[in-house]
Hints:
Order of helices and strands: HEHEEHEEEHHHHHHHHHEEEHEEEEEEEH
Number of strands: 16
Radius of gyration: 23 Å
Strand content: 15-25%
Shape: globular
Amino acid sequence: MKLLLEQWRKHINEVTTLDPEVKQGFRKAIVNSNFWKHPHEEYDVVDSTSLKMPDGSYAGETPASVVLAEYLNATAQELGTDLFFVVTVEKDDGYVLRDGDANYPNNWLMGAEFNGPNSSNGKNLIIIELRPLEEDFELSVVDSKQLINLISQVVNHEMVHYWQMKKQAKSKGLSDEKAWEELLCDPEQVPIGSSQEDRDEWEQRCGRAPPEEHHGKEVYITRHGEIDAYAHEAAEQLLTYMSPEAVIRHLRTSKGILWAAQQSSSVRLFMDTLARDSKEIRKFWTKLYTQIQQQSQVLSEGKKVKVFRAQPAFTKIIRTNDYITMSRKFAGDHAVTSAVYNEEPFYVVYAFVDEADIKEADNPGEYLYTGEPFEAKPSQMATPEGDLGFLRGRFNEAEDFQKNMKKNLPKELDFLLNKGKNNKKEGEGITNPPNPKFKSAPPGAPFGE
């Protein structure tokens, strides 16, 4: 039993980073949806036909939220994931985004939540809630790039939770449904609501009395999964402004924490909520450094051309003069037909290569790789029965790097967390609407309990 618990804790303490193909795919979906150009004012909100609330009422939606959900779900299907997105709009006019609001005009987010496996469609549900806009909202004042960044970051935040559940299911040999049930009954991962109704619901679900005083923002952000997800989000926010080398250089200055808190709402949340030298703060900073290192690798790969290839599952090597394609779907279709014909599994592998190392082939949609042989990364597998799916574990465990960070960071963290003006809570902060809706909140949104 002790060994099982240690294995469980090991997995929830690891750093989860997301597959760049998935991240880029969902970001592209948000961009291509142009959802912000569709009606989204307070009088455009109607009852949704797809999401019923616990009290029996229907969530709100607008043409903008509908088109965003359509693009996200089309991409989820194209990428071969078992994710399903629901995008709702708050119907309470107290949450309308108006001129003068701290989040005006670019932050339309109300909140978001990974809601686990959905029994109705067998998919894992991510809910995103938007605030409606005031009547006659002037769209010309919106910085669409900033809005896209916010939506993309919150999608990635919730996908971290999705992969945390997937990792735990795999490590214990459980179905997604069973892993989700166990996760919900582990207070070290999911906080318990403060109301008596929440506590009664937890006791009924988990079969035991809930622990006392296990709610609130401080408890919420110190759960293992949230530290992991917010570190991922903070790294994304900091890397929006400058290179990884410049970010690390800024963090190592005497005012590094103040700078990071000004640039990242996720850093600001932790520094404004927790004691500066707490164990949880140290965990957050260790994971943040790891995330910066991991995401910097993705950024460097992004300067190259992404290619795919279908090939037998016994090899990951792309050789000189092998056929490649820039379409994951093209490679996936070829992998399926090849697996069925040859009666053996086929991989879809991908890699980032120099543009100079590819040239057009005679077949439309195909290219020849002319560089040196190398090992690519498998992302999907086609079976002889004709099934195609993503390989489990589409995440990177930065174990070696994280171990080194844990060894080398203590003195640096002592300096960062205890010196000079870093002990002062400075900055304007963000004013949010009351009554939080979800457990996982994006930049500027309220926090669930």
